[in-house]
Amino acid sequence: MNDRRRRLEEARLYLVCDERPDAFVEAALRGGVDIVQLRIKDGDDELVLAAARRFRKACDAAGALLIVNDRPDLALAASADGVHVGQDDVAAARAREVVGEQLLVGLSTHTPAQVDAAADAGVDYIGVGPVHATPTKPGRPAVGYELVSYASRRCTMPFFAIGGIDASNVAAVRAAGASRVAVVRALTGATEPERVARSLREALTDQQVRVGAA
């Protein structure tokens, strides 16, 4: 297991965001974010690369992983730790060909069949959701806690529950079987991202202890 995969195994809190000021990213990392995914859907390559290189410095300082959304070529160019693709983006197998075996490849899943297929897709982790309806995924119906529970029973790789997760429901998501979560608005919309990240991380850790002791 290389260092990136070891850190992936240990990760609990995953932030997905667009281009943001350094101060925001650094605050989220101080609060306990383990992985940052840069997701810029409509920016040109130079914009993505410039943001990724800034994020890279912040992640290096915090010992966190950096993932680039959709674009394996830009993940390589930015010296990111991996790339994340969706079901309708670059095929996971193609992403793996581009980034090689040392970098991470993540894949979004929305159904039990997609969760099962991920085991043979050559990816390192999956996102499972959206647990709740969210404007960051317009038109994508919520999968609820059932798919989280399914993934907890069937998935042999790290998975992150995602979709409308915040301080009000993170304990319920954890109780459904997720030991890792990915968030967007819970942090990008926070006036104190460091404090919110810390509370999310603590909720995951606390719930993990309770479930393990039950």
What can you tell me about this protein's structure?
By secondary structure, the chain is α/β, with parallel strands linked by helices. It is built from 10 helices and 8 strands. It has a single domain, classed as Alpha-Beta Barrel (TIM Barrel), CATH 3.20.20. Helix 2 (22-31) packs parallel to helix 3 (45-62) and helix 2 (22-31) packs parallel to helix 10. The longest helix has 21 residues, at 193-213.
How do you describe this structure in short?
This protein is an alpha/beta fold. 46% of the residues lie in helices and 16% in strands.
Distance between the termini: 31 Å
Give average pLDDT, whole number: 93
Reading the helices and strands in chain order gives HEHEHEHEHEHEHEHEHH
Helix content: 40-55%
Task: Please report the number of helical segments.
Answer: 10
Would you state the CATH class? Answer: Alpha Beta
Largest sheet data:
8 strands, parallel, barrel
CATH homologous superfamily heading: Aldolase class I
Q: How many domain regions?
A: 1
* Overall form: globular
Number of strands: 8
Structural class: alpha/beta
Spatial extent as radius of gyration: 16 Å
Which runs of at least 5 residues are low in confidence (pLDDT < 50)?
207-214
